[in-house]
């Protein structure tokens, strides 16, 4: 699969012909166009497949329109130029009349002009001369057809298509989305260089529009057809009439060469900001670049003003209907040190949906704010009630939407953004509301058991989607999930802390002051000290109460039977069994805690609840859960790569490589066709950026504690930290920090707890001393 | 005229009957809905008059629907409760059958729930009992009809109206705007308390929908009809289907009492933040509150996320088609110290239209960015080519749209926001681009005259709209306008300074680095030192080159003939004369400079250009222009009240009072029917807040230099300054500063150049010593 995007617009597919895997799936998606979940009644919207601007084909006079299957392909080569964000294709075709025609294409979705995309096609008649017709247009008859959807769901999300020509070389098409009636306008301009003066005529059906250009090819003489498209919608700001804007934009756009130059310059600036190098000749440099490229196609700087959120599959496909889950948890830590403005804008996306989240909480009889597990534009719950079992193709009841912990991920993200950036205006305006809304939800959800002076949180599910209830009670939730209860304990503390911070800066608050009275704060503090945790063994928290009493799976038997167990849950279901019966995990759940918190933080958190906790047992916790986890979610490997980084560097690196390969090495299995896995995409970069470098901002101090995997010689990157630009180069023995000249005062960086003063315009190199011994733990120190 | 608004939505008019001035003008406007300028071809949009949610009337059985004219009004009382944002009305009507019915209404546009408005009507049959029908609905057949528009212009801006009932007590109506096809949905829910069980039936035509409720009135027993409306549009964020959202919202909304409680609480928070008191018993406390109320109806905290700009007439009417001019210049200084987040958001509105401004500059053969004089949603030039002469009703060519100085106002605003708040992230991300775009436009517009080593800026117009060319050459512009050239000299300097600041914080920049090379900066610096200024006399800059050679108007003759000369330009035109011939000014032009710059700044600026300038001559400059100015713009008095504050406190106070009366004392003459004058509204508050207090932030220092007019005993207000909340109480002898407890370090405030340290949680009172002598100037110091 190939996608080109700019954070506003993404175009995938390979028209005019089917892609290499034989499936024809064009698709153009706009950020923020993931509205209501399609239902069995059809007709509603998911992520909307917009009118396709790509169609362009040709036919020699008296021949047939070129299409795969009709001509023989003598040669084909496709390449993606990551540096320039350019898709390149070369094709040599032989038609039934033995005419050999070479086709070269270059395609871009402009990173400089976010509404513009362009396709340049060079035609060379190799062994013939004669008339050729080129057909170029916009197709409004598209449907969403790249995912399996519920029976009866209609993949058609556009209505009221109207189209025409503007009397020049431009065709236009407008349509409205079926549910939200958002207007979309697509224009395409086709120009020709070479081949003599071209004649044009309009062609098209009711829902597609095109021009046919007739011109003369001379053997060996290239003719260049440039097609420029512009896309606007009624969601766009600073636009009144999308069609007027799209017509104006496509006329104003420069030549393909000019567009490419501006586009390349924009990508150059982006690459400068998102540099993350492990060495040009390192085998994994390319996947790192691909992930960076994928990430920036959805979360480019343009995404900040769009109110589009962090969709699980990026802008790359229709998987999960474009919905927003909790992937931001894996994305923001990376962005916080690269493009914190974007994190803030994306957290504002959540803040704008706080009213919806409050209603969700209220509708479930709760307080505060409950962000749904899956949501779209409106912020309401869009989690499906059924999903397909990929093993046997049966539709089964889907309880995953009952996960109530998305608000914890958001509260966590809001706090970490504040902690990393010190952005008080965010904390005072939006962050505090997100934190307090989450705290109130969980404080109300916790029930007090006076017998033990303990609070219980019952009937919820954690991230591990294999467990949605106790055996025989599917969908009814579990009690005292370690992930949930520890996150709640932490989040209650951060809400109170944020409240205290904001209260100390009375002028930082906009207008409506949130009041958290003493009684409420006392209750929060009490819950945060007395939530119940269960343990499966001494020092090993149970994923939930009763996890330790579940049956052990006969892993060997299942491995022998199925090989890959990533779909273990579906396999068990297909056998008529129930995953709820077993001590198995689809993905990191307890171990997510070690991903989100440093060992010091986690130790303090468990002890705060009045339970003993020895951080030296962390490797045992890791072992206990890791061997029971199937990584049915791509996010799981991120968490595990992180968790293992200090205890088992080799396995950590292997986990990272597997995660880097998610959408590259095994795209078929990973359903990459339905879109990339954005959380895993960013998470891999973050492992390199924060985990292997030991980079942390805590208590207003930037800390580094590098420990590279053996397979990495060095790591080069650039971070933005509180108005400073800091270049890091880390190898097994040294850390080099460099900052350009500037006015910011020196910053103190703790490198393995040694303070290093870094003044603007200087370079500091620090020796790391002896590397950690394999298997040692960060607490062991240097 | 009455308007209730919340920054998102504003509802005006007094349905079901005509207003006190006999004109029926309902109108509901949404922020950001000022699209394309209506043209003679009609059908396009200006500010859109949305479906009217107010219609509610009644009839006794066998009677006629109540409407003014059909019944006798025995009593009527209307009141606006500013504190609660509540419109109150009491009416006693006598119908032809001698039935006396008392009607009490309370109306609000919620400041707590921005999509919600509500109208509560209490009916009391005083001397009768019997059946009554109440008709309540939504009217989609509205037109814009509150302004004079070009002949042929169509006031109808809605199309495709569909409406219905949802089977309960809710009616709904949707429509699309004619040009931009934005969808609007309005729902209204009508409930009754008392009168026994009500029956309901649907009524309505194609474009309006209502319910008729039949119930029984008993003499003396009140029946309360509560109507709640919800408005959503396809511009709204976090909304997919406006109609779905509007139906949900109106069902969820609480009772009128609950809505009022939340609304009042929100207004209380706003009033706390926008407190500006001159004493409860002071005659001008009320107008100050009215202006604050008016301002916050358009620029409430909700306005920040709407991409709606600062429209000249607020959300209060259709004047100027809802367009954006330069009023923000008078609004931001006030907001910067109250709600700086809003200034930033509104400057982002401009930044989002930088591409349009660049295109505007290019289309006129220039460089950089040229913000049009009038613009709407798209940012393109919407200035009318013709306007009506209010004196004789003739349509005349309108050259005012050729004013190119809006970008200077924006650059000024961006810099002052930065200077006041120290918000580096704004400066780096958007501010610098606005400043550089403006600098580039003017650097390219300035032509070099090697003979004098001077730059000229020719063929432009300043703020004074009486002068758009030299006599006989209307519309061709003027040369070397003092306002323009001095603003340009200043703006070039600030652009270079901003560039230097941002360059010193390399990590503050997002991704695309603006490059201003040495050569460009040298050119800017050269122009900023060598722009030409003309003078009418020693030390008195000419409004433009040649101003001193124009004819003097026989002011006495015109005053005798016309009395009020605010429409002098139109009067002269109606006489067949040309304002361009005379030394007259419609509004502050040269004197705007004294509004925008302190005497120190202006002195430095003129001297920087190599001209002598004695600040002691400032009173002469003021005298020269003041006596030639007619204040044909409401903004003029703001500038003059400011300019006179130190030299002639009495006249300054009179100017301020006149400005405070703009939309109150003389609404007919001031065209308040077409909307309030937002710039003057905020400007009056700013005179009190900054001018009479001498409040200034310069070089990261907060300064106070109070000089109250004799008519003011004291001034109380609260400002937000860099996360601090500072309460100021100023009288003729003392300044009292108080801050609540907090964590911010003490701030040094210069009070008449004496440093005072203000720590959190303390109150400091400083004696002012002898007051300034009347007529002294700030330079004189203490």
From TrEMBL, chains A, B:
Residue intervals of the Glycoside hydrolase family 65 C-terminal domain: 695-758
GO biological process: carbohydrate metabolic process
Keywords from the named record: Glycosidase, Glycosyltransferase, Hydrolase, Transferase
Stretches assigned to the Glycoside hydrolase family 65 N-terminal domain: 2-235
Binding residues for substrate: 326-327, 586-587
Record SUPFAM superfamilies: Galactose mutarotase-like (SSF74650), Six-hairpin glycosidases (SSF48208)
Domain Glycoside hydrolase family 65 central catalytic: 289-685
Region (Disordered): 365-387
Record carries keyword Glycoprotein: no
Signal peptide interval: none
GO MF annotations, alphabetized: carbohydrate binding; glycosyltransferase activity; hydrolase activity, hydrolyzing O-glycosyl compounds
Catalytic site: 465
Keyword Hydrolase carried by entry: yes
InterPro entries attached to this UniProt entry: 6-hairpin_glycosidase_sf, 6hp_glycosidase-like_sf, Gal_mutarotase_sf_dom, GH65_N, Glyco_hydro_65_C, Glyco_hydro_65_M, Glyco_hydro_65_N, Malt_Pase/Glycosyl_Hdrlase
Pfam families with a match to the protein in the record: Glyco_hydro_65C, Glyco_hydro_65m, Glyco_hydro_65N
Protein family membership: Belongs to the glycosyl hydrolase 65 family.
Name of the protein in its database record: Family 65 glycosyl hydrolase
């Amino acid at each position: 699969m190939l996608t080109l995007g700019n954070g506003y617009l993404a175009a995938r597919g390979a028209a005019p012909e089917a892609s290499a895997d034989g499936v024809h799936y064009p698709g153009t998606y706009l950020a923020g166009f993931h509205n209501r979940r399609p239902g069995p009644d059809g007709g509603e919207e998911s992520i909307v497949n917009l009118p396709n601007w790509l169609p362009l084909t040709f036919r020699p006079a008296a021949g047939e329109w070129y299409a795969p299957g009709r001509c023989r392909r003598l040669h084909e080569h496709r390449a993606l130029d990551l540096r320039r964000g350019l898709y390149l294709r070369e094709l040599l075709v032989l038609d039934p009349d033995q005419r050999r025609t070479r086709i070269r294409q270059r395609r871009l979705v402009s990173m400089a002009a976010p509404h513009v995309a362009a396709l340049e096609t060079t035609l060379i008649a190799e062994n013939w001369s004669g008339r050729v017709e080129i057909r170029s247009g916009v197709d409004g008859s598209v449907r969403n057809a790249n995912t399996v959807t519920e029976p009866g769901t209609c993949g058609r999300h556009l209505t009221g298509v109207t189209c025409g020509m503007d009397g020049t070389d431009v065709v236009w098409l407008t349509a409205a989305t079926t549910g939200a009636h958002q207007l979309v306008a697509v224009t395409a301009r086709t120009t020709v260089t070479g081949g003599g003066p071209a004649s044009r005529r309009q062609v098209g059906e009711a829902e597609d529009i095109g021009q046919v250009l007739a011109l003369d090819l001379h053997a060996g003489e290239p003719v260049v057809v440039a097609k420029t498209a512009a896309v606007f919608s009624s969601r766009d700001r600073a636009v009144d009439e999308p069609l007027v804007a799209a017509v104006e934009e496509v006329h104003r756009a420069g030549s393909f060469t000019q567009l490419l130059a501006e586009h390349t310059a924009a990508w150059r600036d982006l690459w400068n900001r998102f540099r993350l190098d492990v060495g040009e000749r390192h085998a994994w440099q390319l996947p790192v670049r691909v992930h960076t490229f994928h990430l920036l196609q959805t979360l480019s700087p343009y995404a900040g003003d769009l109110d589009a959120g962090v969709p699980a599959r990026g802008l790359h496909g229709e998987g999960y209907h474009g919905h927003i889950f909790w992937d931001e948890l894996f994305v923001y830590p990376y962005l916080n040190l690269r493009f914190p403005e974007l994190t803030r804008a994306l957290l504002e996306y959540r803040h704008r949906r706080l009213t919806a989240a409050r209603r969700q909480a209220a509708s479930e009889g709760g307080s505060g704010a409950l962000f749904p597990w899956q949501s779209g534009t409106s912020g309401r719950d869009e989690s499906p009630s059924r999903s397909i079992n990929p093993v046997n193709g049966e539709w089964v009841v889907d309880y995953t939407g009952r996960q109530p912990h998305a608000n914890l991920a958001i509260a966590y993200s809001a706090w970490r953004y504040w902690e990393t950036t010190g952005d008080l205006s965010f904390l005072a305006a939006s962050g505090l509301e997100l934190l307090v809304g989450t705290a109130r939800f969980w404080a109300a959800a916790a029930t007090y058991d006076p017998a033990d002076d303990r609070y219980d949180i019952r009937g919820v599910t954690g991230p591990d989607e294999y467990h949605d209830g106790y055996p025989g009670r599917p969908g009814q939730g579990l009690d005292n999930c370690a992930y949930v209860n520890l996150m709640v304990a932490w989040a209650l503390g951060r809400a109170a802390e944020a409240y205290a911070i904001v209260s100390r800066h009375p002028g930082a608050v906009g207008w409506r002051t949130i009041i958290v009275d003493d009684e409420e704060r006392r209750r929060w503090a009490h819950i945060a000290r007395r939530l119940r945790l269960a343990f499966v063994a001494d020092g090993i928290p149970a994923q939930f109460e009763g996890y330790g009493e579940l049956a052990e799976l006969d892993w060997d038997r299942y491995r022998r039977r199925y090989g890959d167990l990533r779909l273990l849950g579906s396999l068990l279901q297909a056998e008529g069994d129930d995953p709820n019966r077993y001590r198995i995990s689809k993905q990191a759940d307890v171990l997510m805690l070690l991903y989100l918190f440093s060992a010091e933080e986690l130790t303090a958190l468990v002890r705060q609840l009045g339970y003993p906790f020895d951080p030296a047992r962390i490797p045992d916790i890791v072992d206990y859960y890791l061997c029971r986890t199937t990584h049915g979610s791509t996010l799981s490997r991120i968490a595990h790569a992180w968790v293992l980084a200090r205890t088992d560097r080799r396995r950590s690196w292997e986990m990272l490589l597997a995660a880097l390969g998610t959408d590259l090495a095994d795209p078929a299995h990973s359903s990459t066709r339905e879109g990339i896995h954005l959380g895993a995409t960013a998470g891999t970069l973050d492992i390199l950026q924060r985990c292997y470098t030991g980079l942390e901002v805590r208590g207003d101090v930037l800390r580094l504690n590098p420990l590279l995997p053996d397979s990495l010689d060095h790591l080069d990157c650039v971070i933005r930290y509180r108005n400073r630009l800091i270049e890091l180069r880390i190898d097994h023995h040294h850390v080099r920090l460099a900052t350009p000249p500037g006015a910011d005062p020196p910053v103190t960086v703790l490198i393995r707890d040694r303070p290093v003063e870094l003044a603007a315009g200087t370079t500091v190199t620090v020796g790391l001393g002896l590397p950690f011994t394999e298997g040692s733990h960060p607490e062991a120190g240097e």
